[in-house]
Amino acid sequence: MAAEIHSRPQSSRPVLLSKVEGHQDVVSAALLIPKEDGVITASEDRTIRVWLKRDSGQYWPSIYHTMSSPCSAMAYHHDSRRIFVGQDNGAIMEFHISEDFNKMNFVKTYPAHQNRVSAITFCLASEWVISTGHDKCISWMCTRSGSMLGRHYFTSWASCLQYDHETRHAFVGDYSGQITLLKLEQNTCSVITTLKGHEGSITSLWWDPVQRLLFSGASDHSIIMWDIGGRKGRTLLLQGHHDKVQAICYIQLTRQLVSCSADGGIAVWNMDISREEAPQWLESDSCQKCEQPFFWNIKQMWDTKTLGLRQHHCRKCGQAVCGKCSTKRSSYPIMGFEFQVRVCDSCFESIKDEDRTSLATFHEGKHNISHMSMDISRGLMVTCGSDRIVKIWDMTPVVGCSLATGFSSR
Ligand SMILES: [Zn+2]
Ligand SMILES: [Zn+2]
């Protein structure tokens, strides 16, 4: 059935507008310049480049700056024309870009980390540059004085970061698969809670401060939506990628989530419907359908003189079942299962054909995506990757029509 979903004719798909080539190594970050036909890229080849679209329709570098260490992360603040570049050696460099994007001046170096910088956010109101790194910490530094304000250590590499500018809460994803919510103060911080649900390192986070939703993507190929504002611990699982989820972006206006995976998969999830929570997996010593014992249940095996069976779980009801009672597979998009998963025989009977209608669209980026960012107001997306290529996409065919959503026409 999975093949059916992916091969179903889709009239609307992302339109590749431009391909930007020239980097000598992995492009770790690419950002669209608001209101300009321009892209800023940072690469493992130690360069930062600003590319502007020329009359020929091609993008050419207007700035080409070489750094001392490979570039691993980047943040750009358009109104103040400030750019922060994180490096493999743990330092963050700040530059100021001229109005015409032809010059970039060095401002400051921040000794933010002891190891590779994984994510950066700049907050103009507080004049903080906040970052996470492979030295297992989040640090926040003052951009006026250049000094370190605070630091907090985790048990594993901190891999991604989202920040709520108004309330000074930070979400940090790490390599253990945990997300930590912290409240940052001037020189201290407090851990509010930890979110556990992924079975692999957290690779991307997106915080929507209005609906108070947190989205996390992980190396376990799945995405989880955490309803932080709902305060009931509600989570939704989204499984449709076949590789690490490298980047996510939630479009609040149309209630769509765009996600990209390392194999080039681009998914657009419809979050404007009431989805169901996937069940917790139940524990049992015997199949909850036929009551045959599982193999570790020596006592019952002895009593009934039967051989123990392997335990499986029905993804729809969460019951612990044996293989014989769960021979069928089905997709179940309302619970986030866009491809076929194991279901017990009674759940299979209960799933109607219309329940299998996909609630997401899937597209091919044909590209090893390591990072993505969107200019939501124009419906543009930029992806970059380990194949050293940067691609600029028109997403308006898949993220809603311009009149209904307020996207400016291109
Ligand atoms: Zn059974
Ligand atoms: Zn079931």
TrEMBL record:
Pfam families: FYVE, WD40
UniProt feature coiled coil, ranges: none
CDD domains reported for this sequence: FYVE_WDFY1
Swiss-Prot/TrEMBL keywords: Endosome, Metal-binding, Phosphoprotein, Repeat, WD repeat, Zinc, Zinc-finger
GO CC term (a single one): early endosome
Function field: Positively regulates TLR3- and TLR4-mediated signaling pathways by bridging the interaction between TLR3 or TLR4 and TICAM1. Promotes TLR3/4 ligand-induced activation of transcription factors IRF3 and NF-kappa-B, as well as the production of IFN-beta and inflammatory cytokines.
Positions annotated as WD repeat: 20-51, 195-228, 238-279
Residues in the signal sequence: none
Gene3D superfamilies: YVTN repeat-like/Quinoprotein amine dehydrogenase (2.130.10.10), Zinc/RING finger domain, C3HC4 (zinc finger) (3.30.40.10)
Residues covered by the FYVE-type domain: 281-352
UniProt-annotated location(s): Early endosome
SUPFAM superfamilies, A to Z: FYVE/PHD zinc finger, WD40 repeat-like
GO biological process: positive regulation of toll-like receptor 3 signaling pathway; positive regulation of toll-like receptor 4 signaling pathway
Protein name in UniProt: WD repeat and FYVE domain-containing protein 1
InterPro entries in UniProt: WD40/YVTN_repeat-like_dom_sf, WD40_PAC1, WD40_repeat_CS, WD40_repeat_dom_sf, WD40_rpt, WDFY1/WDFY2, WDFY1_FYVE, Znf_FYVE
MF GO annotations: zinc ion binding
Principal subcellular localization: other
